[in-house]
Specification:
single chain; mainly alpha; 59% helix; 0% strand; flat
C-alpha cells in the first residue's frame, strides 16, 4: 500500500498563517509604521515665550480670540451662502437687519459671557489688583464697556 504524503501543516494552520508577499512586492510596498499613541495629558510647565508672563497671557487670549472668530466667520459664510442659494435670504437683508430689543438684550448677554471667557487667562491678576485698589470694582467692567461701546 502506498503511503500518502501528509502536509506539513493542517489546513486550519495555513489559514491562520500570515501571507508572505513576493520579494518584489515587499520592496515596492510602503513600510507602515506602527501606530504611536501619545499621552493626552501635558506634562511639565506651560511654555513661556516672552520674558513677561502677562504678555504670554495676552498672546493666549489673542490666539483664542482668533480661533473663535475664524470659526464664527466660516459658519456665518456657510449660512449666508446656503440661505442665498435657496432663495430664502439675500445678503442685503443681512446687512440691513436692525435687531429688536429682545435680540439686543440677548446679544449683550452673550457678549458679556464672551468677554468673561476671554479675560479668564488674566482674571486672577486683575482681581487681585482691583481688590487692592477698590474692593467694589469689577475687573471686567472696563473691557465690557469697550466691547459694547
Amino acid at each position: 500500500m502506498a503511503r500518502r504524503k501528509t502536509p506539513s501543516r493542517t489546513a486550519a494552520a495555513r489559514k491562520r498563517a500570515p501571507k508572505v508577499a513576493s520579494k518584489v512586492a515587499q520592496k515596492i510596498a510602503p513600510k507602515v509604521a506602527p501606530e504611536i499613541r501619545l499621552p493626552r495629558i501635558a506634562k511639565g510647565k506651560k511654555p513661556q515665550y516672552f520674558s513677561d508672563p502677562a504678555i504670554d497671557k495676552l498672546l493666549w487670549m489673542t490666539l483664542t480670540l482668533m480661533e473663535e472668530l475664524s470659526v464664527a466667520r466660516d459658519r456665518i459664510d456657510t449660512l449666508e451662502r446656503l440661505l442665498d442659494d435657496r432663495g430664502l435670504l439675500r445678503q442685503e437683508d443681512v446687512d440691513g437687519f436692525i435687531p429688536g430689543p429682545t435680540a439686543r438684550a440677548l446679544r449683550a448677554a452673550r457678549r458679556a459671557g464672551f468677554v468673561d471667557r476671554m479675560m479668564r487667562a488674566a482674571q486672577a491678576e486683575l482681581g487681585a489688583a482691583a481688590a487692592a485698589s477698590d474692593p467694589q470694582s469689577d475687573p471686567h467692567e472696563e473691557a465690557r464697556r469697550a466691547v459694547e461701546g
